[in-house]
Amino acid sequence: MDGTGVNSAGVRSVARIVARDDGRGGTALPVLESDGPVALRRTRARGAEARVMLVGAMSGPLGGDHFTVQARVEEGARLSVGSAAATIALPGQAKGEARYDVRLDVADWAELHWLPEQLISAQGSDLYVTTRVELAATARLVLREEQVLGRSGEEPGRLTSRLTVRVAGQVVLDQELACGPGAPGGWDGPAVLAGHRAVGQLVVVRPEFAAEPVPARALGEGASVVPLAGPAALVTAVAPDALRLRRLLDEASATLMET
Questions:
Q1: Where are the domains of the chain?
Q2: CA gap 193, 131 in Å, rounded
Q3: DSSP secondary structure string for all residues of 147-216
Q4: Which residue, of 77, 112, 138, 143, has the greatest Cβ tally within 10 A?
Q5: Is 220 helix (H, G, I), strand (E, B) or coil?
């Protein structure tokens, strides 16, 4: 392995964020570490909220790569994480699937907005994404995931995505979606994507949802919201393209934050 983390099995990269209440009405970032293809950039804070941008320093993830992003929001802190551009899963010279793991930990009275840009599954790629979120009982979360199957005019690669959310140690969401060549049959059928090429979800966790759960309902064409078993709600959406998907999820987010 060389200094960039490259070996015969692909690139290994870990990025870490720790957000902490600074005691002055703001949020400090005592840990902001990254290497290889995933770079972290501090941006201008908004009130008490610290803001960080994920920047892709290299192409990828490619076949055989393994990227990990970890974020911990300590008690009373507020953090928003976005990305500068879409992430594109590409085929690589190394054999085997690529992996992208996200690990998020939010303490009591803390808040995290996890809002990356779309993940695009390019033809010939094979990517497995896992996102695991651990929330304390009074933590707050807004998490958005968007996946686009193939670039313009091409077939998608293989994409498997698993999202797990736990609140106070209890699982409120654990789901997996596999799409593309080799995925279980029916992924493109009427019960799943129905021919659409953009799919996304929005998870909102707020302590007040425990007493007043969000009612299940449709949110325009292609989107719906359901309450989860805990202080949380899940929006799922499908759309013909990334632009329409983002519009659906933005409208859903505005609706839930007003609830």
A1: 6-258
A2: 21
A3: EEESSTTS---EEEEEEEEEETTEEEEEEEEEESTTSPTTTTSTTTTTT-SEEEEEEEE-GGGGTSPPPP
A4: 112
A5: coil
C-alpha 173/C-alpha 116 separation (Å) is: 20
Count Cα atoms within 13 angstroms, Cβ side, for 242: 16
Phi-psi region at 63: left, alpha or beta (left = phi > 0; alpha = psi -120 to 50): beta
Residue-by-residue pLDDT tens, the chain, 259 positions: 333 344 446 888 899 999 999 999 999 999 999 987 889 999 999 999 999 999 975 567 888 899 999 999 999 999 999 999 999 988 877 667 899 999 999 999 999 999 999 999 999 999 999 999 999 999 999 999 999 998 877 888 899 999 999 999 999 999 998 888 877 766 665 555 666 789 999 999 999 999 999 999 998 788 999 999 899 999 999 999 999 999 999 999 988 887 6
Helices (H), 73-160: none
Distance CA 35, CA 40 (A): 9
Give the Cα separation of 15 and 252 in Å (integer): 30
Q: How far is CA 187 from the centre of its chain?
A: 20
What does the block give as tokens for 236? Answer: 């799922």
Residue 226 pairs with which residues in a beta bridge? 234
Find all residues with CB under 8 Å of 259, minimum gap 6, and list them. Answer: 209, 212, 214
